[in-house]
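Now for one specimen:
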Amino acid sequence: MKHAIRLTLPLAAALLLAGCGASPEERLTRAEQAYSAHNYSAARVDLASVIQEAPENARALELLARTYIDLADPVSAGSMLERLGRLGKLPADAGVLQGNVDLMLGHYDKALAAVDGDGSAQAYRVRALAHIGAGDTAKAAQAFAAGEKAPGSKGRLLADYASFQLDSGNEAEARRLAALAALEKPRPLNSYLTSADLLATDNNLDKALAVFEAGLKAYPESRAALLGKIRVLDALGKNEAVRPLVAKALADNPGDLDLAYFDARLDALAGKWRSVRDKLQPRESVLEQQPQANALYAKALLELGQGEQARARLTSQLLREPDNRQVRLLLGQAELALGDASDAVETLEPFAGLTDATNEELSSLAKAYKAAGRSDAAAMVQKAREAAGARIVSRLASADKAMRNKDWQTAIGDYETILRQTDGNNVLVLNNLAFAYSQVGAEAKALTFAERALKLAPDNASVMDTAGWLLHSTGKDRKRGLALIEQAARKAPDNATIAGHLAQVRKS
């Protein structure tokens, strides 16, 4: 009995095109080349067309099984392995392949059974991930450690082991393992992802971006690498670079909630709350699957005066995620907007016991206390002010140290935090943040902060110099840039940095 592959209409059409003018042998060779280049969708089309004509072609069935695994389609991959089993032509690593299928399906006991007796590094990776899925991190650690010493290709195991160590707080060990994983040729996809995550953890966002881009170049269909690149660009404030990436990816994958979130977030950053609501509203029934999108949608509802709808959505989310501070804050703010001060106090009160509570969290709690007529409202306001002041002093010291050490990403993180916890009008912070962003190549964002500082302190020589230099280096307005630097030089004739900038600008 022959088993036909069930095809979607677009794939069926692609198969008709794939079969035109090429023999099965040519299509199989083409599929192998596409697979080696990690173009899995192209490989799938050619392989499926080959199998339509030759249902017992074991070489095509095996490669299609591997392709489906890389496309995260465990059901189709399992079907290919079953057919190979009936033909008696399973590959030597069939247990590992089946283990990966079972992992994706959440069948952790079956995954362990599939690799039973296999001593390869890839089998230990399956064991480790199965134990993680089952919630047994101790056994996962044992499997990872054994896998590092096992024979065979181990790049994927080492990368996953590095992520496991990072999640466990062992950053030094995570870096060691990630460096080993990166040495494997060809470099596995999860090695790029893990290395980039480590760099992002260290606030080396520019380097993390480069690694994600390298991962996308090697694995052009990787959703994880694409989302990683988008997240880093978003963190760097490069919204104009994010927009076309999201638009293209969302056009190809209209049901992707992560992409929908970033699409709506771009509008949120511009204060376009009606657009945020309109983009996310058609996905209301599935937004709970993406917590950030759900919270953003609730925020849009709140901004548009739909407090009851926002409260219902946020209440449900907070029950699922009681440690989500963003959701707790939004819910408290929604309750305050609706006049339910006592509920707002109950929601926001956990912030009072947090040593790292933000100014916004404590200020919202103070407002709730006052609205509820609490006698200790004034004390909470004072506590909020004192806590905010202490944090700002600490952050400024950290940022200043980072600037001296040329640790630009740490400085950026500290200064951004200070702006969020204040009114955002500290000239020194804005000017230093502009300089730090310029040092990581984010000159457009740097100029935005420089202009804000200049508006607040138009006669400050250092501020004029920073803005002038960025206007010149970005090419946005070199004439104005020169004028600003000339003014700065007249105000601070002994400043060597300003004099150097003036000489370079005049020379160019």
Remarks:
- Confidence is low (pLDDT under 50) at residues 1-17.
